[in-house]
Amino acid sequence: MTAADPFAPRRAAVFGGGAVGAFVARLCAERGIATTTVDVDAVAVQPGIVAVRADVFSDPAAELAAAADVVVLALPEAVALDAVASLADALRPETVVLDTLSVKAPYAAALTRMPGVRAVGANPMFAPTLDPRGRAVAVVRYRDDAAALDWTTGLFSGAGSRAITVEPQQHDDLCGALQALTHATILSFGAALADLDLDPGDLLALALPPFVAQSALLARVTSANPHVYRDIQHAGPAAAAARSALAAAVSRLDAASVSDDPDEFTEFVRSAAQGLGDARDRLAETAAAMLTDAGRTP
Questions:
Q1: If you write DSSP's letter for every residue of 219-255 in order, what string do you get?
Q2: Where is the Prephenate/arogenate dehydrogenase domain (predicted)?
Q3: What residues have CB less than 8 Å from 188, skipping those under 6 apart?
Q4: What is the pLDDT of residues 74-97, one digit of tens each?
Q5: Do 201 and 146 belong together in one domain?
Q6: What is the pTM of this model?
């Protein structure tokens, strides 16, 4: 088999039994692929999926990778970078390695040292516990491998998602805003709220709908695995640039707020709206729909 031939895997080994790994494993199994999930910890059993407790660097893991047609790396970045190098010699030439990393450029750089590895990336732009239908999945092109890209696109579009192909650096630049900036804003809101030291019950009793919405996002983020968000913030210059932009924006807001010239604040609001482009009116309608029930007491 070559990269030009259609890719139709029969066996998949999914390394990482977390939420994303479980999601991809389920999609593989639903397509009739014999799927095994491998994790150092016990994982929840899913119908039609074999669960193996093993380290990704162990001999059993290498054996599973050697037998698989598609190897999925749903692992933290540092582990995935070492894992692909460790497993490379065990892979057959036709095997495709699919990673689900949140940051792609360092992994892409590592792949340049492994030219024989067929590789494609994916990043579901939503929590895997949500209904995937209509939601975006970034499919990342590392190689000129149309068959691997087509199969990966079909894996997610078959579940109703919108699979969008991007380059590694393009992915990271966009995710600097989509993920790093968004999560930094939510977490900074929570840290500032804690520093104000006000009673949460009193706040929620009087809360405006936007406060409820922001607090709900904070609750969701802080209830998840912090290592996922750390990977997003830690790796890559795009995340650092996003945090710097956020800090600079807060400084400009502070300056505009204390200025004696009201036009400065108006200009700040105008500049903030520029980030939405032509979508502002449509997104304002979306916000109105989202906030309809926020703040209401059942």
A1: HHHHTS-HHHHHHHHHSSHHHHHHHHHHHHHHHHHHH
A2: 10-287
A3: 246
A4: 998 889 999 999 999 999 999 999
A5: no
A6: 0.86
